[in-house]
Automatic annotation (TrEMBL), chain A:
Protein name stated in the entry: Branched-subunit amino acid ABC-type transport system permease component
Subcellular location per the Swiss-Prot or TrEMBL entry: Cell membrane
PANTHER family reported for this sequence: ABC TRANSPORTER ATP-BINDING PROTEIN (PTHR11795:SF442), BRANCHED-CHAIN AMINO ACID TRANSPORT SYSTEM PERMEASE PROTEIN LIVH (PTHR11795)
UniProt xrefs under Pfam families: BPD_transp_2 (PF02653)
InterPro entries documented for this protein: ABC_transp_permease (IPR001851), BCAA_transport_permease (IPR052157)
First-listed, main subcellular location of the protein, grouped into a coarse class: membrane
GO cellular component: plasma membrane
GO BP of this protein: amino acid transport
GO molecular function, one term: transmembrane transporter activity
Highest taxon above the source species: Bacteria
TrEMBL record, chain B:
Protein's organism: Flexivirga oryzae
Top-level taxonomy: Bacteria, Bacillati, Actinomycetota, Actinomycetes, Micrococcales
Superkingdom to which the source organism belongs: Bacteria
UniProt protein name: Branched-chain amino acid transport system substrate-binding protein
Statement: the UniProt record of this protein carries the keyword Hydrolase: no
GO annotation (BP), single: amino acid transport
Amino acid sequence: MDSGSIITNLIGILTTAGTLFMVAAGLTLVFGALRLINIAHGSFYMYGAYFATTLSAHLAGAGFWVALVVCPLAVAVMGALVEVLVLRRLYRREHLTQLLATFALLLIFADIALRLWGKDVRSIKPPSALSGHFQFAGAAVPIYNLFVIGVAVLVAVGLWALMSRTKLGWRIRAVVDDPEVLASSGTNVPLILTGVFALGALLAGLSGVVIAPQQAVQPGMDAEIIVAAFIVAVIGGLGSIVGAAVGSLVIGVVETLGAVWTPSWASTFIYALMILVLAIRPWGLFGEAER
Amino acid sequence: MMRKNLTAVLAATLLVGPLAACGSSGGSGSGAGGSGGSVTVGESTSLSGSIANLGQTGLQGLQMAVDDINAKGGLLGKKVKVVSADDNAQPATGAANARSMITKDKAVALFGPVSSAVASAEEQVAEQYKTPIFFHTSNDVSLMTKTFTPYAFQNVPNTTMEPRAVADYLAKKVGSKQITIATFAPDYSFGHDTVDGFLQALKKLHVNYKLVKQEFPPLGASNISSYLSALVSAHPQYVFNAQYGGDLVAFTKQASQFGFFKDTTVIAMYAYAPLDALGSAAPTGAIGFDRAAFWAIKNPEMSKFVTAYKAKYKKYPTEWAILAYASAQEWAYGVKKAGSFDSDKVIKEIPGATVPTIIGDMKIRECDHQAEVPEYVGTISKTASSQYGGLHLYDNIFTAPFNDIALTCDEAKALQQ
């Protein structure tokens, strides 16, 4: 492989990993704090993208930048409502009930999206500052891909700082370990849970906005991403942010190099890898074995 | 091991998912007998997921054709009703829908799905219940060869014709120059067949090409950056891309960010829908092909249809809508000639006939019930069309004639069992 190909593949790996990480991190964060696997997490990603197409259609020029701030917040509000109105009632139920309920939410959100946006394929243009590419060591480097990677890195660093450097992060971790003690020490546990869920939704929404100029925004993208994000979270270990980051990178490497060396087997490798991880470490690479 | 159980349950939920999303809509007919009342036709197609746009606009074309028939007093004095259902691109669901439309809704004709795999399943149902079925989107050549039944009709350039038309165009363009080619196609039978057909056609035309990369990303995968990186690294002069709809839009956006369209000529199904989705981001200079380019079909009926469609759905008609409309006209022609809705009478009237449709006179071949339709190929224009809302359409449109690209009747018959 020449240096150009190495750089091209590296960009492919990091772009795939970056978009996956933002969605998988939210999924895994919510699982960590709420012990809930939210299938409707894919809807937040899709709504982020759809909101962005609508907003940038109405705002010329700076539309994308406004969407980048406003749309994830709108999705976060949506997430908070879902948590308060629906999921809060399900925390003490069986996991099967939770799965079916969030799966129902995914279908309902998909139907609402069809009513609102129809079945057309939508797309938005990247802002002019981020379009185009430059040559580097014999490879064309798309600026937008660097932007996607940059946003993912910021999200990763931000999440790490939040969880390990702030009081709020300490409380979130305490919610996972001992909600009763935390509640008796005067912390508003339900508020923290709603906040974590909204944050997870925000991250999915952000990923949706970020991919909108690169991918087709269309029905079905919710289900597609949830499968991929779930595989990442399982490989990395449900509940672990570091695991989500490593899991995304692993998937990025397997997909990209798989596509280069054995194109038609790339997606098979990913499932095989998931089975392998489940067989050896059922709790994932960075997860913890059940207490 | 709670987490292990969770995983199993989740996996099961995700797998069952597509089944839960199906449903049917529309009214039911009152059978075929007597005068007055109504008859029902059915269309089970993909109305959800990443190919929903193909299914939906096809259904809209059928609905408009039926509305136009009804506005002129119906067929043999009866109003025509359309029932529809979502097949989720699953052959079993499509077959079940088709069966239910025939037995429960008393559908007298079926119109085809998007996916050829589903079409093949529905073709068997059509034969079993002796009900005519018209394929206007799925285009696998084996529907009219390997699994041919007299109840099935295909009104799309099939998987032999379409890539041959494009190969013809490319051969004229490159002459005897040596070129490097890569292929990119969704990983299922349509993608593989179309790519194979294209390469075979190039060989037959003695194009001097070297294949540098072949990739088959999964159908509907919107994140293809890994596949794309591999393609970019291969530096092909030409890429034949058999993706369509949203997949093609995603490919185009990501590839153009690599500056890919500057040194590489992409050849792909840049029909109206992806060109509309891309807008000013359309890859000018790339080679596009379209099964029914409304802007290239010049006749008063087409203009009337385009205007009416635009007024109703706020968009121009896709090739899927146009060919669905023509298919309904074909069925109605057969019914009128037969003077009856009876399947066996209707299907005798169509083969060999020349049916007037919005795409012009459409001849239906007797040997395999393939409509003698052309394929439209062109280079995406650098200038946006002022007539069609600023879309980048084709320069020098090339209409590949049916006889140049289709299997001969002898070849088709040899493939029929």
